[in-house]
Write a structure and sequence with these properties.
about 40% helix, binds nicotinamide-adenine-dinucleotide, NAD(P)-dependent dehydrogenase (Short-subunit alcohol dehydrogenase family), Sc_DH/Rdtase_CS, about 15% strand, alpha/beta, Rossmann fold, 7 helices, oxidoreductase activity, acting on the CH-OH group of donors, NAD or NADP as acceptor, NAD(P)-bd_dom_sf, oxidoreductase
Length: about 250
């Protein structure tokens, strides 16, 4: 498929994991792609895309990256705001600086990216922000991350409302557990991995490309009437939130 032929796309966090998968799919579908990331080495491993080393928490760097994209390719059609990470720490004992660092990256990073991208976009353009299932489900020891991802979900709706008169759509994806360097610590074959997988109806973690597909759908013309919404892509994890009664409840009853 070449749904993105000659489109110009910017992907933040494009050096790894979900961002890299979105970038690769966009290239495969014919887009001119710019990957933005703080990780220069990771960017160097991505193929067939332009790369810019920049920090999404630095407004001037994001603005310059967007301007360079437009100078290079003439416009910006689609933006994917993927960059994110977390420093863990409980509410009572965690480090206050770590809490602020995470919220700054996850929430303000998406705000700054959306702000500078939207300023140069034309009607028909679109933005996809990567939130998390943790916008809906708390993550023990990472209140900063979960609260900031909930913020990304609401920010996306607000941005869709405000950018409507510019003809720009803004949507969010809420991934569940996806196999990337970010989640490697949860997927070491230990008891935490087993606990996670028991709650996922698909009984496995997702692959980065399984987020890239829905992301390209939401950003593209097939989703022209989809705006300000959130798409949970979690292999059916959110729906198992209720205590797992499968061992005691059968189709005919307990
Ligand atoms: N992997 C999952 O299970 C999962 C689930 C829900 C949400 N997410 C979200 O998806 C996004 C991508 O995560 P991933 O799993 O691919 O992780 P990843 O670590 O593989 O990729 C994240 C990328 O963001 C970049 N980055 C970090 N800080 C940055 C900054 N200040 N400026 C620019 N780039 C920066 C990193 O260098 C890295 O390349 C994140 O927002 C993450 O919170 C991931």
């Amino acid at each position: 498929m070449q749904r993105y032929r000659d489109k110009v796309a910017l992907v933040t966090g494009g050096a790894s994991g979900i961002g890299a998968a979105i970038g690769a799919r966009l290239v495969a579908e014919g887009a001119h792609v710019v990957l933005l990331d703080v990780d220069a080495d990771g960017l160097g491993r991505q193929q067939a895309a332009e790369t810019i080393v920049a920090d999404v928490t630095d407004s001037a760097q994001v603005r310059d990256a967007v301007e360079r994209t437009v100078e290079r390719f003439g416009r910006l059609d689609n933006a994917f705001n993927v960059a994110g990470s977390a420093r863990f720490g409980t509410v009572v004992d965690g480090d206050e600086e770590d809490w602020a660092w995470t919220v700054d990256l996850v929430l303000r990073g998406v705000y700054l990216s959306t702000r500078h991208e939207a300023r140069v976009m034309q009607p028909g353009a679109s933005i996809v922000n990567i939130s998390s299932l943790n916008a809906h489900v708390p993550l023990y020891g990472a209140s900063s991350y979960a609260a900031a991802k909930a913020g990304v979900e609401m920010f996306t709706k607000n941005a869709a409302l405000e950018l409507g008169d510019r003809g720009i759509r803004v949507n969010a994806i809420l991934p569940g557990l996806i196999r990337t360097p970010l989640t490697a610590g949860f997927m070491d074959g230990g008891p935490i991995e087993k606990d996670f997988l028991q709650r996922i109806v698909a009984a496995r973690a997702g692959e980065p490309d399984e987020i890239a597909g829905p992301a390209l759908f939401l950003a593209g013309d097939e989703a022209s009437y989809v705006n300000g919404t959130s798409l949970v892509v979690d292999g059916g994890w959110e729906i198992t939130n209720y205590p797992d009664l499968r061992p005691v409840v059968h189709p005919a009853g307990p």
